[in-house]
Amino acid sequence: MLNIVLVEPEIPPNCGNIARTCAATGSRLHLVEPLGFDVSDRAVKRAGLDYWHLVEVAVYRSLEDLFTVHPEAAEDLWLATTKAPRDYTQARFSPDCWLFFGKETAGLPLDFREQYRQRCVRIPMIDEARSLNLANSAAILIYEALRQNGFPGLLGVGEMGNSSM
Which end of the chain has fewer beta carbons closer than 10 Å to its terminal beta carbon, N or C? Predict the structure, then answer.
């Protein structure tokens, strides 16, 4: 099962969209504080996120806290950053890898990126573009990781595939 980590996410709709992608793909969502929004049951219901119950969500006080709880994450992680030395197609994602995404205004912390420099990947884009939307970036990498592993547990055929047309 993929592990999606949002480090200090700031924009509620981005987190909601990523949570929906996690729900649709059976991926876990890990949120590293501080968060720019409330993820309590009451807030989630008020926002109408009717798929939230399909997502396994964990919240951590810091990156250090996450790695204390999940030391295995350090062995199989990938960091999404526009500053990466290679594009994401060069990564070989395992079925249980950890995909890290930084906050919308600043990305992942410099010291964290430097510590895992060889595990940093980027999504190709034109030089003039600063970055893609966080939810779009997460969806691209989540589906690439799933594709590389044969879309484990996901339906590959919709109802049209079952018709006799």
Answer: C
User: 10 Å Cβ neighbour count for 24?
Assistant: 15
Closest CA to 22 of 5, 44, 46, 38: 5
Helices (H), 8-132: 12-25, 41-46, 63-69, 110-115
How far is residue 77 CA from its own chain's centroid? 11
Give the H or E element holding residue 4: strand 3-7
Confidence at residue 52, expressed as pLDDT on a 0 to 100 scale: 78
pTM of model > 0.90? yes
Bridge partners (DSSP) listed for residue 30: 5, 58
Q: What does the pLDDT average to over 38-58?
A: 74
Closest by CA to 102, choosing from 26, 36, 22, 58, is 36
The answer to whether the CB of 83 falls within 8 A of the CB of 114 is: no
H-type alpha helices, the chain: 12-25, 41-46, 63-69, 110-115, 134-148
